[in-house]
Amino acid sequence: MASKMVMCDPCSRLNKSSEGLKYCIDCEDALCTNCSDLHSAVKLLASHHLVDVSVTTGSKFNIKKDCNDHEGMCFEFYCPDHDCLICRTCMANMHRTSGKIQPIDVAAKGCKTSSMLEDVSKDIASLLNSTNALLEDRQKKKTSVGQTKAKVLKEIAKFRHDINDHLDQLETNCCSEVDIFERKIRKTVSNELSEADKRQHVIQNICEQVDFVTKHGSESQLFIFLNTVKSDISRQAVSLQDLIPSLETNEIGFESSNLISVMKTFGSLKKSSIPCTVNYQHPKHIQAQTRTIPQQSLSSKRMLIYQKEELHVLQ
């Protein structure tokens, strides 16, 4: 199927129809040949970054340009003392004593070969590896729940053959409890799998944006994007670091009774838990390159415990 033709935005605003062949990253407009030539001829627009319109198909430059603290103001400078992007109001109000403030265009020089790009790329790769491993781990656990159920039911059936027919009802009750455990565990693992999938998509999206801006954006745009995306990466890292220790692997076991002649229960079901085996270490250099993020105290973190629940099936 032929790709949909991109229309020239300036011509469209003049009720004209022209095919867009170039895309201005700064104006966020598709441009036909004539508009592209005119765009480059205007002095104020000559420094804008133009790319082939084909590279923007299905992708967006999600670069935040507006200041968080001052509405209507855009980032124009970089403050090395505070390692942050600032607008003119920021510079006047909060960065008066900073003596090394630079225009973004100046500070961004060499950004595509900088250690910051390398560090951010490594951090994203680390997050992706961990979320991919987490996704695979939870998928395996979800599958093993059914396998464990089959194994337990086989043990129950084997034990059942050693007792009299009057224990049929006790067997039914015990198998019903296995189903209850299995449904609860499966529901928990399904929720964890869904959460892991959401995190993986978020990190994958950040990775694609970094790759896209690196290949097709200007150094200024990449510099702005890397500085604005660092907080998102840090939040994902802290969130993932807190999530993994809270995950458990629940197993179902069966213990048969040794007192068949006087047994009052068919047996007992036990659920054991072990910590998630996925490893993840929060990159320290992200914390060093971003504004201070309040750390959660040790007392407020969830402590992993091994729980063992015993359910007696009464006659």
TrEMBL record:
Q: Which GO terms describe its molecular function?
A: zinc ion binding
- PROSITE patterns from the entry? ZF_BBOX (PS50119)
Source superkingdom: Eukaryota
Q: Where is the B box-type domain?
A: 3-53
- Which UniProt keywords are present, listed alphabetically? Metal-binding, Zinc, Zinc-finger
Which InterPro entries does the UniProt entry name for this protein? TRIM45/56/19-like, Znf_B-box
Matching CDD domains, A to Z?
Bbox1 (cd19757)
Question: Membrane spanning segments where?
Answer: none
PANTHER family linked: BONUS, ISOFORM C-RELATED, MEIOTIC P26, ISOFORM F
Q: What is this protein called?
A: B box-type domain-containing protein
Q: Which organism is it from?
A: Mytilus coruscus (Sea mussel)
Q: What is the lineage of its organism?
A: Eukaryota, Metazoa, Spiralia, Lophotrochozoa, Mollusca
